[in-house]
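Hi, here's the filled form for the chain we discussed.

Project: internal
Contact: R.S.
Residues: 274
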Amino acid sequence: MSVFVAEARKVPAFLRRDWLTMKSYRAAFVGDLLAIAVQATMFGFVAKLVDPSALPTYNGVETSYFEYVMVGVIIATVSGLLIQKVSTAIRQEQMMGTLEALLVTPTSPTTVQAGSAAFDLVSVPVRMAALLLAVAVTLGLDFEPSGILPSLLLLMCFVPFVWGLGLVAAAVIVTFRRGGGVVGVAMGILGLASGAFFPLTLLPGWIQTVAEANPVAIAMEGTREALIGGSGWEGIGAVLAVLVPLSVAALLLGVAGFRAALTREHRNGTLGLY
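And the returned structure, exactly as it came back:
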C-alpha cells in the first residue's frame, strides 16, 4: 500500500506540468472547443431536415435528431481525443527526450504512462461536458436533469475502456515508432458500429450484432436513455453490468501490452530511438 501511495503522489507533478503546457498553448485549446461548437451548430441545422419518427425512442420518449446526435458527437469526440492523447503521450516523451530520464528514476512505468495521460483523462471529459451544457443552454437541447449524474457515472466507467485502447496503441507506437494509423482504424471501426450519427437500425444486421458488444455504442445508448428518456439511476444498471467488465478487460490488456512493449525496448536498448 505504501508503494502505491508513493507512486500516486507523483501523478500531480505530471498534472501540473501538462497544465502549464496547456496554458502556454491557449490557441490550440480554444480551437478544439470552437471546432466542436461549429460542428454542433451544423448538426443543429441538419436536425431540421430529419424526420423525428425515423429515430428511436428512449424510455418511451421521442427525440429530435439534434438531441440524438449531440450525445453521439460528445462521446465520439471524447473517445477519439482520449485514445489519441493516451497513445501519443509516451511518443511525446520520446520526442522530447524525457522518456528515458523518467524511466531511470524510481518510478513505475505504469505511473509514467498514467501521469503522462492523467491531465487529458480529466480535462477532455470535463471540457466536453461543459460544451454539451453550453449547447443545451444556447441551442435548446431538451435533456432530463435527472439524467445528468447517471450519465456522468457512465462516462467515468467508459473512460477506462478508452484508456485501455490508448495503451494498446501506445505499445504499438513504442515498438514501431509509427502507430497513428492504429488509432484511426480502431476508432473508425468502433465509430461505425456505435450509432453516433444515425440509428443502428439503418445498418446491416451483422453491424447491429457487433454494436451489442461495442462499449462506445453501449455508453451512447445508456447516456441517451438517461438524458433523453429520463430513465435515471434505474436505467443504467444493466448498461453498467456490461460496460464495466469490458472497460476493466480493455484496461488490463492495455497495461499488459504497454509494459511488454517497454520491456522489449529496454532489452533491445532502443527505448530512446524515435
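Let me know if anything looks off before we file it.
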